[in-house]
């Protein structure tokens, strides 16, 4: 069988094209495996020993304080509704046991909220309404309008600031007499929490950000008090950008107060 010159040229060109494509694809594969995924790997944030020391101090603040009792005022404000304010008796035990008795303006208990670490209880004393549910994540959103958990509220009330996990710390000065600022930065270089510290390195404010850099929650600490050697906030105000706000004032604080066994479990009211 006769093969003409044009057929030979076509066959040779076809083989050369296949070999070239294989070379290009192999090169792209090597690039993708060695360097092409660098953009997908989380960025590393340089660590600063001084900033990390401040972060460790915040994490372990009042580590010897495990339970407390106090009297205070709880104020809840939601958009388009007037603020509701109650005197309250509060008892807490780290990590997730909490009881808040709200007093009515005319005396007596208006409602009681409690968590025993397994269940969340709510009792409305006037109507004798009783609710009990599995604690789960412990969110108090339906009660106070903010997605704050029992664990986080207790941490705040023992003088420890909830901190964004898995972040590196970077501290900067905001003035000789104004304290400093501590940014918690995730592995992609995004600021997830910004803490303003006073000259004694006590938190004055904390702002939490979403992954897009938008502020979500803001905490303002107004004043500090020392009780049995523990530095504790006088007032906490937690707010959301959408307008919800919860203010907790702490008075007559008793650190490591004794607790009754059944304090954090609420039985249904008698009928």
Automatic annotation (TrEMBL):
GO terms for cellular component: cell outer membrane. Pfam families: LolB. SUPFAM superfamilies: Prokaryotic lipoproteins and lipoprotein localization factors. The keyword Signal applies. Transmembrane segments: none annotated. InterPro entries: LolA/LolB/LppX, OM_lipoprot_LolB. It is found in: Cell outer membrane. The keyword Signal applies. One of its GO terms (biological process) is protein transport. Keywords: Cell outer membrane, Chaperone, Lipoprotein, Membrane, Palmitate, Protein transport, Signal, Transport. Belongs to the LolB family. Monomer. This is Outer-membrane lipoprotein LolB.
